Automatic annotation (TrEMBL):
The keyword Mitochondrion applies. Keywords: FAD, Flavoprotein, Membrane, Mitochondrion, Mitochondrion inner membrane, Monooxygenase, Oxidoreductase, Transit peptide, Ubiquinone biosynthesis. Its EC number is 1.14.15.45, 1.14.15.46. The keyword Flavoprotein applies. This is Ubiquinone biosynthesis monooxygenase COQ6, mitochondrial. Its main location: mitochondrion. It comes from Microctonus hyperodae. It catalyses: a 2-methoxy-6-(all-trans-polyprenyl)phenol + 2 reduced [2Fe-2S]-[ferredoxin] + O2 + 2 H(+) = a 2-methoxy-6-(all-trans-polyprenyl)benzene-1,4-diol + 2 oxidized [2Fe-2S]-[ferredoxin] + H2O; a 4-hydroxy-3-(all-trans-polyprenyl)benzoate + 2 reduced [2Fe-2S]-[ferredoxin] + O2 + 2 H(+) = a 3,4-dihydroxy-5-(all-trans-polyprenyl)benzoate + 2 oxidized [2Fe-2S]-[ferredoxin] + H2O.
Amino acid sequence: MAFICKKFICSRVILSSLWHRCNIVISNQAIITRKHHCVSENDHANHDIIIAGGGMIGTTLAVALANNRALESKNILLLERNSKHEYQQREQYSNRVVALNQQTRNLLSSIGAWKHIEAVRYAPVRKMQIWDACSDAMITFNEDFLANEIAYIVENDLVLHAVDKQLKEKSSIEVIYDAQVENIILPAARGEDTLIKLQNGKQFKAKLLIGADGFNSRVRQSMKSQYLKWNYDQMGIVATVKLSEPTENVVAWQRFLPTGPVALLPLTDSLSSLVWSMTTEEAKRLLKVPEEEFVDALNDALWKVYPKNGIVESGMAALQQLLEQFSLQTGVSRQLQPSISNIVEGSRAAFPLGFGHSTSYVAKGVALIGDAAHRVHPLAGQGVNLGFGDVVVLVQVLEEAVRSGSILGDTIHLTKYETSRQRYNVPTMLAIDALHRLYKGTAAPVVLARSLGLQLVNALGPVKKILMDHAAESPRVR
């Protein structure tokens, strides 16, 4: 007979017997990391917090909660729908990477995970160069390298590995792999528990359920929250590419094409990570073409000279004269982008792009974080950072609730999390969506408007600093 662990006080003989019985394999469909407690499997296992989704965001939240002094005594259940995966460092880089901002690095450092990333590999971004293919407009960030690194390029599986290592040290966290959620029943009244049932029949109760289960979130669906979404009819091609010549590779490059942005993120002196957005039809075609044809198309995207419109050229010249009159920066020290010699074999892949936002992040006994709450275009590299920002603020809010003696799932406190994050997330998401739409246009008035705006922002140092500070803002309850 199988048992789920629950804390008890018994004699040595009984304890030894029950311990033996609790370690019997429960099911071929689930692997359970046990930390505490044993009750009959016919009962509901009670937890303070259940996190549905064990990716980068959900796992980081679990560790951050267990790392917080006010919350470390809470027992936490992490439900991961995938099988347990052991990380193995390989010489070849993964084609899925994230650009972590300074505040995300601070979060990972605070829970002890960043040291594991440092022990393996990451690439700092010390400069960004962004330019328009339809004009000469461009903007650079941290051109003189006076500021700290503006981002850190890390492989997705390495981030998860680093957080997993910290997870294993937390005795208050129980993890279930291959956890397929079948049903969720949210509390009808204040103080009631949330019930979550798995496909293998296991049922669990919690004071607070947190949905970190991606943009097709079952937790969000159980909330019946209105979800605003649209597809961009685009896919993002990712790959690891080799530069034609080794260089001090510390620059993130992004060129806005009429078909979508193409970006190169540094990995090593001779390798970069590619994120190339384009129509779904074209992406599927480029995934199938020979490597040589793909490399030619990529170099064309990075270097092709598009015909310039006379109206746009005249407008840009007039702006330059105006800036000169006010002694503002009129030119940019342009650094030439790299060329690509070939791609790492087997690294080409693609994923669909879309926008999504839940109008509500919280309800009685439940909260959403990460992609379960919001989804954005990757052109600004902010999607994962928004999720890590959710983690920081939610931990702050739950700490405040515990210190005030409130119930974890009380909407009085959870609403503070929702308000704080939506005030930050919504403007950021709308700005990213607006940029995507603005750079799709090829009509002369549209190209002129965006080119003038880009060049003007580049000339105004304080404005650029505001943009950089917002991208790396320290999440807090507001």
